Every structure is written in structure tokens, then in C-alpha cells.
Amino acid sequence: MFTPDKKILSNYAKVMIDFALGKGKGVKPGQVVYLQYDTEALPLALFKIISRHHRP
Amino acid sequence: MIAPTEPFLLRNIDPKKIMISNSGDKRLLRKWLFEKEDKGKLTWTLCLYGTPGMAKEAGLSIQEFWEEIINACYLDKENPIKTWESTFKRIDDLKNKLNNLPVDTYHMISEKTDLHIKLGEHRRFQGGGGANIPSFEIFTSPDWRGVNGKIFFNFPLYRYGNIIKNIQLEFKDGVVIKATADKNEKLLQEMIKQKNADKIGEFSLTDKRFSKISKFMANTLYDENFGGEYGNSHLAVGTSYHDCYSGDIKKMGELDWEKLGFNESIEHCDIINTNPKTVEAIMKDGTKKIIYKNGLFVI
Question: pLDDT tens-digit profile of B118-171?
């Protein structure tokens, strides 16, 4: 199974969470995100979850 | 995150059964989500995760398929968000120009296509809002009652675990009066039989100068943002987008939407045309102006 480079997945997660959600403004502290994904997208899903969890 | 392993999982299922999945709880969930969005308490976005199944259907290797995703979403840039902000600013500028035109009706001419679309009152174009990555399209939800003529969609439609090829729709006073396809016409017919799925909810144009997508990707998220040689236009049958109303959404009720010709349906299915085309705007005073030609907005 092909998995893109970690840097690419990290950038992808940032674009979706810090930009795309919230109409181009990103997710703000305290907001809830419902993430729905097909199983094959697990590598990116994990990046999204981790990138939020580690944020202060 | 869209990542179907196999795009044709439902190929042997009766289309009538597939449509049943759109009833019941799904309707309630959708209503709840839309109401929440109208109140400004919900935003959403979609993206694509490349799979071998989709790559094969697009005629690409999985590496080539991912190259398209990386390129389209600026994922190899040091700061992709900055690049997205710059792209959305350009889309926003164009959108504002479009919204300032006193348009009554759009007239689209293309291969096997001659279609009039009345914009309707209190409308605005949207685009570059973060819903969907990548997103290069500029779209609105016109008054469904003012659509007349015929349209051909040269891109195949991947929907409900199936493919529908070479769709042609004919409208009279906003309602589909003829729907044909070379492959899976029965599924198309069943889809359109759903309540208000025989009326449009969206009219969209993509300027090829914005879109980084130049390859057929065998899924709606990318294909509806296709740039290529001639950009793309797509119509969605089914529900409208309330944020294409230029007034205060929070003050609107069900009857208000109906009065303005915003369509309400469980369905929202984008169907795409990437052939060369001309779109002319017929203004409220009757004058005409070409606004889109050969994949470019010309305003």
C-alpha cells in the first residue's frame, strides 16, 4: 500500500485543520471536529488527530 | 476524507434499493446539519486520500494520482496555507466582480448544450471558502424555476458506487423533462425520481487560471474543480446552498427559501462538463455580456 511522505501528510493535515475548516480560518480551541474517513485514509486521519492533540 | 477502495461496490445493486438509503434517518441528519450550518454553528470540508482503486479508474499509477493531489493542494510547498490564502483571495476578487453584475439570466452554449439559467433574486456567488480542498470553483444556487434548455456532461459521474456515462438533461421551467445516459441510465433515472432531484441546486464555473487540476481523477471532488484546457462547468441536481443567499440566512424560514426558488432535496449531485463553452450574461436591462469563454472568466 502506497503511503505519501510524512511531510506531505503533515502539510495536508495542517491545510485541513488550520485552514479549510471554519471557512478558511481553521479550527479554534474548544471547537469539536467530527472526522469521517474511509479506512484507507487512516495514515492521514492519524496525522489530523495527532496535530490537534499536541496543540496547546 | 474520501478514499473509496473500490469505486464500483454497488454495481450489482438495484438502483431503487440504493435510493432507499437516502430516506429515513439520513434525511433527519441532513436537516439537522443544514439548520446548524445556517445558524453559523457548523462548518465542513472534504478532501481526498488517493487509493489504488481510484487511480486505476483515472488511468494513473497510485504515485501519479498522489502527485495530482499534492500539486492541486500545494502540499509540497513550505507553507501551503499561505498559497491557499493567496489563491482564495484571487477567487474572492473575481467572485466580487461577478456579484456586482446586474444579471438576470446566464446562457451557456457548448457541445450538445444550450441552456438558460435564471439567477434569481438575492443571490450571490460563492467560492474559496474552505469547504473542500482543493476548491477552485465559483458557484451559486440559482432560482431552480428559471432553467430551460439542454445540457450534456462529458465527464463520467461516479455516484452511488457506480459510474454513469454521457449524461444529457433537458429542462423545462426548471424541471428535468428528459434524462439520458449511455451507461447506467436506470440509476440516473432513479436518482432524479427522488423528491426535487429533478431540479437544480447549483450552477458552477471554474477558471483554469486558478485550478491546478489537469487530469481526470474519477471522483467528483477533483473533477468538479477541473482546470485543464477549458476549465469546467457543472450543475448539481438536488438541494441548494443557503449561503448563496445574499441576505441574512438566520432570518429565513422554509417558506422564504421556497419563495425565492432555493431547491430543497436529500440529493445534491454535481455533474460535470469540461468541453469548450461560452457563458453569456443577459442583464436585467436586456443587454448581453460574455462572462466566460474557453475556460476563463472574461469580466
Answer: 999 999 999 988 789 999 999 999 999 999 999 999 999 999 999 999 999 999
Mean pLDDT, residues B221-243 taken together: 97
Quote the mean pLDDT of chain B. 95
Burial class (CB in 10 A: 0-12, 13-18, 19+), B208: buried
| Cα B256–chain centre separation | 23
Identify all chain A residues contacting B126, using CB atoms and an 8 Å cutoff: none
Cell, residue A34: 467530527
Whole-number percent of chain B with pLDDT over 70: 100
Contacts of B51 in chain A (CB under 8 A): 38, 40
* Burial tier of B219 (Cβ tally within 10 Å: 0-12, 13-18, 19+): buried
Q: Among candidates B271, B257, B287, which has minimal Cα distance to B144?
A: B257
Q: Tell me if the pTM is above 0.90.
A: yes
Q: How far is CA B119 from the centre of its chain?
A: 16
As given in the structure block, the three cell numbers for residue B264 are 430543497
For B137, phi then psi, to 5°, come to: -75, 155
ipTM of the complex: 0.90
Give contacts of B91 with chain A, Cβ < 8 Å: none
Minimal Cβ distance to B49: which of A25, A35, A40: A40
pLDDT at A56: 40
Distance CA A44, CA A48 (A): 6
- Alpha-carbon torsion B282, B115, B269, B144, what sign? positive
Residue range B174-202, pLDDT digits in tens: 999 999 999 999 999 999 999 999 999 99
CA distances from B74 to A35, B77, B80, B151, B215 (A): 22, 6, 5, 33, 16
Helix (H) or strand (E) holding B262, with range, is: none
Q: How far is A54 from chain B (nearest CA, A)?
A: 19
Find residue B288's DSSP bridge partners.
B282
Residue A33 has what DSSP assignment? -
